[in-house]
Design goal:
Elements lengths: L1 H5 L5 H4 L4 H9 L3 H11 L2 H10 L16 H38 L4 E6 L2 E7 H23 L14 H6 L5 H9 L14 H27 L7 E2 L16 H21 L13 H4 L4 H19 L1 E2 L1 H11 L5 H10 L5 H16 L3 H7 L9 H9 L4 H6 L8 H8 L5
Antiparallel strand pairs: 1-2, 3-4
Helix pairs in contact: 4-5, 6-7, 6-13, 7-10, 7-20, 10-11, 10-13, 11-13, 15-16, 16-17
Length: 421
């Protein structure tokens, strides 16, 4: 009705009747419960809504209700508006709060040495800040993208099959759809049938799945690192109902890891409703009413992740002990690359099958193991060990102190600590 007034279809004397108080009654006094009751008589949800609206509107406005619109001009546009508003007004403040907590943990632990792990096996050294960085970076990128996509879900005001047929007869202007979408802060679909193209909504909700996945990855890591076998992290936990020796079941970490399944399951409804017959059918109308469950679960996951990060404590000593126990040989990569550069054939095999086992068996470092094998292995000579000691790359310091083999881990973590939403 406001659009009809703006494009001069509705007479000014009728437009003057749309007082703010009356319009607020339409918003706040018509409930879905009341609409459901009337729908039993009308057999149509929008017709039921219109009947309830007439109870609050001056009679002169009745003729302008739903003028030149079809039901999914209303419903699809409402879904688009809903997604934009809940993400901007509800999600973004909580995402910013989670982001602040996450970045503070990265900043505080940028230099804390930790074993890197691939395939759950000891890999190269990292820092705790670097570990926290990877999932945070995904979370922020996905959140930024979701904010963009929330504003790109189109609405429509194009009539029964999307051809503007009735509007071209009864409206004096062709700007109705444009005016309405501008009022709502939405874009208009370039082409709509009776429904808007589904891709905009699907892309937005899938981005929520990606946000959920980044948070779930944090939870998955924390629950493993909190296990006694690692003992590097402690977070809010519970005891057991029967095993009274336990004090730290990582329930928050487990919850945010598991909620991804709920989010994906709800999102599958969206990916399964991308096809409609011709200009529209009713198969997916009931399914569409549940799309927002994706947002509900993701939002709860964000709130839970805040509680998790508030509770996380890093066990510096546990990280250090794990590294001292398992990290002495992690510079094998640097050694085999050095030997490879020096032209030694099968350098990886030599390090993997001979030098590393020797170092492990004797409890010595890789340089000492290399020296020990001089003469017994064809390509290991005093010349090679001398090059290792004095090479300008400084490889010796990494072989003697493997915790220094960090690359840009600290730099990357400190940079991510400033990567604010």
């Amino acid at each position: 009705m406001k659009t009809l007034a703006k494009i001069k279809v509705m007479p000014e004397e009728d437009a003057a009747l749309m007082e703010k108080g009356i319009l607020c009654k339409l918003l706040f006094e018509i409930t879905t419960t009341k609409q459901d009751v009337v729908e039993k008589k009308t057999k149509h949800d929008i017709l039921a809504l219109l009947e309830l609206m007439r109870e609050h509107l001056p009679e002169k406005l009745h003729k302008w209700l739903h003028f030149c619109a079809t039901s999914y001009d209303i419903i699809n546009t409402a879904y688009a508006f809903q997604a934009k508003v809940f993400f901007e007004e509800a999600f973004i403040p909580e995402i910013k709060a989670l982001d602040e907590l996450w970045r503070e943990k990265i900043r505080a632990n940028a230099n804390v040495i930790q074993l890197g792990r691939t395939h759950l096996q000891t890999a190269l050294p990292v820092t705790v800040g670097f570990w926290l960085t990877s999932s945070h970076n995904r979370f922020i990128k996905n959140s930024r993208k979701a904010l963009i996509l929330a504003g790109e879900i189109p609405g429509c005001f194009s009539g029964a099959v999307g051809t503007f047929a009735s509007q071209r007869i009864f409206l004096k202007s062709e700007k109705g759809e444009k005016v309405l979408m501008k009022m709502l802060g939405l874009s208009a679909a370039e082409v709509s049938t009776q429904i808007t193209p589904p891709e905009g909504m699907a892309r937005f909700y899938y981005e929520l799945v990606l946000i959920s996945a980044a948070i779930a990855n944090l939870g998955e890591d924390v629950r493993k690192l909190q296990a006694p076998e690692y003992g590097e992290v402690k977070s809010y936990g519970s005891t057991s109902s029967t095993m009274s020796h336990k004090d730290s079941n990582p329930i928050l970490a487990e919850k945010i890891a598991g909620m991804l399944v709920s989010v994906i399951a709800e999102n599958s409804k969206i990916t399964m409703t991308l096809v409609s017959d011709f200009q529209r059918d009713l198969r997916w109308s009931n399914v569409m009413r549940g799309y927002s469950a994706v947002a509900v679960y993701t939002f709860e996951q964000i709130l839970t992740a805040k509680r998790l990060l508030e509770s996380i404590e890093i066990n510096d000593e546990g990280c250090r002990n794990n590294f001292q126990e398992r990290g002495k040989l992690v510079t094998a990569e640097a050694l085999h690359l050095f030997l490879q550069r020096e032209g030694i054939p099968d350098a990886h095999q030599l390090v993997n099958k001979k030098i590393v086992p020797t170092a492990r068996e004797k409890g010595i470092n890789l340089y000492e193991a290399t020296q020990l094998l001089v003469g017994s292995e064809e390509h290991l000579t005093d010349e090679i060990t001398g090059k290792i000691m004095y090479d300008e790359s400084g490889i010796i310091k990494y072989l003697l102190s493997s915790e220094k083999y960090l690359g840009d881990a600290v730099k990357i973590a400190k940079r991510e600590a400033e990567n604010k939403l």
